Amino acid sequence: MLARGLFSGCLQSGENDRMSTLEFNATDCLLIIDVQNDFCAGGSLAVPDADTIVAAINRLSDQCSTVVLTQDWHPAGHSSFASVHKGKSPFDNITLPYGEQTLWPDHCVQGSHGSRFHPELVTEPAQMIIRKGFRHAIDSYSAFYENDHTTSTGLTGYLKDRGIRRVVCVGLALDYCVRFSAIDARREGFDAIVIDSACRGINVNGSNDDARHQMQQVGVQLL
Ligand code: VGL
Ligand code: ZN
User: Is the predicted pLDDT of residue 7 greater than 70, yes or no?
Assistant: First the structure.
């Protein structure tokens, strides 16, 4: 039987490898972000090396009493898909009514194989699944707010009603959904930790390091 409440391992922080320990308590939530087939090997928006974090995430979720999963969940023809914008390619940026939006390959279409969780992700410990990006005209990176930064997913209320004070983020992609979820967790008044070694990023033009820097600036702790 694993010692409950204690996760220890070699966690990477910035440029320096170091040993860190994270002890979960009853007011922590482990937020597992978008560990779905389309973001993993063979998926339409595969994040480099994504599959290698699944085992570590499973060990973490075994130790935390509140576990929430997020699931990117787009209708076919979603406005974040490059394929619906004439002349545009994946990773181009366009302006939508709520601001700048990066365009993506079609991914995580509701009910598709790509939208399902990675087959080795242990999902039983999760009490809640937040689906996001389901409105045709608006994307949602954060688990808390859609990309207009005003439409709530309801996650803050769920966590506050349950007495959660600290959100521990892991998953995909470090530079998009993990980044915006962790920043919004701070904005909503939670302490926030990102376990870097249990995340992987898309990393376009240095976006992994930009994300780390931005998260740290608002008080997210990187482990
Ligand atoms: C994500 C791009 C588009 C993510 C989701 O999970 O980080 N990135 N949709
Ligand atoms: Zn998406």
Answer: no
